[in-house]
Amino acid sequence: MKLRKVTAASATVLALALSATACGSDSKESGTGTGTDGGGKKITVGIKYDQPGLGLKTPDGKFTGFDVDVAKYVAKELGYDEKDIEFKETKSADRETALARGDVDFIAATYSITDERKQKVDFAGPYLLAHQDLLIRADDNVTKGDDLNGKKLCSVTGSTSAQNVKKDFAPKAQLRQYPTYSQCLGALQSGQVDALTTDDSILAGYAAQEQYKGKFKIAGLKLSNENYGIGVKKGDKEMVDKINAALEKMVQDKSWDAAVKANFGPANYQNERAPEIGNIVK
Question: Maximum CA pair distance of the chain?
Answer without folding.
Answer: 103
